[in-house]
Design goal:
Length: 155
């Protein structure tokens, strides 16, 4: 095996190890504090809860978001501001999230958009989101992609 290929494999496995916890273990945060990480896990699970398919916690969404903050200082600052705001304004309560999801130009609404957007983008980039929930198979040709069928999401 060439040294560049070997180095690529080492890099990939090291990156995976930073975001993929050992089976049954709670991941430890890489960038966020333990309290911020715990809040992020609760918030992402409110956005995509476990049902008959895995939720955000099952997919490790908070770990992926946390690890991604190490390479983007601006995004890290936005997330830390959002988590500080959530901690001071009702945390992960359904009432708080419902209220700010309906707001348009408030600080809470901006933080909610960050939370919802990153949670959804991250979840549907995982095996749990792509394969388990959507049934995606890279070897399958789809003549048509129907997209979301929930009436409330139709434009």
């Amino acid at each position: 095996m060439s040294s560049s290929r070997r180095q690529a494999l080492v890099t990939i496995s090291s990156a995976a190890a930073t975001v993929l916890p050992a089976l049954g273990q709670t991941p430890s945060p890489k960038v966020l504090s333990a309290a911020q990480f715990e809040l992020l896990q609760k918030l992402t699970e409110r956005i995509i809860p476990r049902t008959e398919t895995p939720g955000a916690i099952d997919a490790g969404v908070a770990g992926f978001i946390d690890a991604s903050l190490a390479t983007d200082a601006g995004r890290k600052d936005r997330w830390q501001a959002a988590l500080t705001w959530f901690a001071a304004n009702g945390g992960d309560s359904v009432e708080t999230l419902t209220r700010i999801s309906k707001e348009t130009d408030t600080e809470g609404a901006r933080h909610f958009r960050l939370l919802k957007g990153d949670t959804i983008d991250t979840y549907y980039s995982t095996i749990e989101g792509l394969k388990t929930e959507l049934g995606w198979n890279a070897n399958t040709y789809l003549p048509e992609f129907k997209g979301c069928t929930h009436p409330e999401h139709q434009v």
